[in-house]
């Protein structure tokens, strides 16, 4: 696999136009699981999740994602695309190992990092798009629905499958899902823990477009971001905020309560048992392959 490096704090306005190389990626020693590149010509940033084998979202990956999101906004990038370095998994969602038999302080930091990353992405002032080039269960779906636009490759799955693991998708997971699919579809799917195939997701509006390759997916995201080229960025950001402020304020005001509810739920012996069985099943399946 290519080693992807990360750019930090590169002001887009300070990047000269270059004809040969059109992306800039600098390394920072702290970035382990993400690549962050800014296209010199378009000003669009791409955040690539790179934590093999399945990009499961642990504390470190979530923290890196948040830093990249902040950088994209601070550096006035024209938009942000999130994708994966894997050919088959966008992200497998939250790292179950962070929640199974967890250490007290770490699991608190983990959930707090998830809240922060989500608020940064959902509330981002710049246009955001997900190029979903693989499976996107649970936390993967959360990231996709926090973006303004989603394009997906065929024959993968996406959805909030928490109930199948014996856990509950918090309200803010559900509210972002509700932005993109009708309430009746959402209630049925989330209570069932349904994972939609790409075709089903497209049918219900969970994804906006379906294309065959990652390159086409990135191009679609770029087109979406370019569709704002004649729109005042400040007016756009304030307008977007009007649509999203309620969920953001709700979580901001209830962060501690949300954390305590999360801890209370995952620390229940029955939930730990269900998670253990689920993880065991994943490991058995993985060994058979
Ligand atoms: C009232 C309000 C209350 C609120 C309370 C809050 C409660 C908590 C809410 C938590 C919310 C979020 C939930 C999540 O995001 S949980 C994660 C859900 N994810 C999944 O179910 C996906 C599981 N994975 C898969 O289905 C598959 O891995 C895949 C993504 C389809 C990819 O398949 P694959 O064949 O390519 O890879 P596979 O062989 O299965 O896996 C390779 C190794 O990776 C391990 N693994 C997979 N997923 C995870 C994961 N999410 N976390 C940790 N580890 C994972 C897998 O076990 C294999 O490991 P190994 O190689 O055997 O060691």
Automatic annotation (TrEMBL):
Pathway: Lipid metabolism; fatty acid beta-oxidation
BP-aspect Gene Ontology terms: fatty acid beta-oxidation
InterPro entries: ClpP/crotonase-like_dom_sf, Enoyl-CoA_hydra/iso
One GO MF term attached to the UniProt entry: delta(3)-delta(2)-enoyl-CoA isomerase activity
Coiled-coil residues: none
Catalysed reactions listed for this entry: (3Z)-dodecenoyl-CoA = (2E)-dodecenoyl-CoA; (2E)-tetradecenoyl-CoA = (3Z)-tetradecenoyl-CoA; (3Z)-octenoyl-CoA = (2E)-octenoyl-CoA; (3Z)-decenoyl-CoA = (2E)-decenoyl-CoA
Main location: mitochondrion
GO cellular component: mitochondrial matrix
Cellular localization per UniProt: Mitochondrion matrix
A Pfam family reported for this protein in Swiss-Prot or TrEMBL: ECH_1
Keywords: Acetylation, Fatty acid metabolism, Isomerase, Lipid metabolism, Mitochondrion, Transit peptide
Functional note: Key enzyme of fatty acid beta-oxidation. Able to isomerize both 3-cis (3Z) and 3-trans (3E) double bonds into the 2-trans (2E) form in a range of enoyl-CoA species, with a preference for (3Z)-enoyl-CoAs over (3E)-enoyl-CoAs. The catalytic efficiency of this enzyme is not affected by the fatty acyl chain length.
Quaternary context: Homotrimer.
Protein name: Enoyl-CoA delta isomerase 1, mitochondrial
Gene: ECI1
């Amino acid at each position: 696999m290519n080693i992807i490096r990360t750019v930090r704090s590169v002001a887009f306005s300070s990047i000269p136009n270059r004809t040969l190389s059109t992306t800039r990626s600098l390394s920072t020693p702290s970035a382990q699981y993400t690549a962050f590149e800014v296209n010199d010509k378009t000003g669009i940033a791409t955040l690539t999740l790179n934590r093999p084998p399945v990009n499961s979202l642990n504390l470190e990956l979530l923290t890196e994602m948040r830093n990249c999101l902040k950088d994209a906004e601070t550096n006035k990038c024209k938009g942000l695309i999130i994708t994966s370095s894997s050919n088959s998994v966008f992200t497998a969602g939250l790292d179950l190992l962070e929640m199974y038999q967890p250490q007290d302080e770490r699991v608190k930091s983990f959930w707090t990092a998830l809240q922060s990353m989500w608020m940064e992405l959902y509330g981002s002032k710049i246009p955001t798009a997900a190029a979903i080039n693989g499976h996107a269960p649970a936390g993967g779906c959360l990231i996709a629905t926090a973006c303004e636009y989603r394009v997906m490759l065929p024959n993968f799955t996406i959805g909030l499958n928490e109930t199948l693991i014996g856990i509950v998708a918090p309200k803010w997971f559900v509210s972002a899902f509700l932005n993109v699919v009708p309430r009746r579809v959402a209630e049925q799917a989330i209570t069932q823990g349904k994972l939609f195939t790409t075709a089903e997701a497209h049918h219900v509006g969970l994804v906006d477009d379906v294309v065959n390759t990652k390159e086409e997916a990135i191009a679609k995201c770029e087109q979406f971001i370019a569709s704002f080229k004649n729109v005042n960025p400040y007016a756009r950001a304030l307008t977007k905020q009007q649509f999203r402020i309620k969920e953001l304020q709700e979580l901001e005001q209830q962060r501690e309560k949300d954390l305590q509810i999360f801890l209370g739920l995952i620390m229940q012996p029955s939930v730990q048992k269900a998670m253990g069985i689920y993880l065991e099943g994943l490991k058995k399946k993985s060994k058979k392959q």
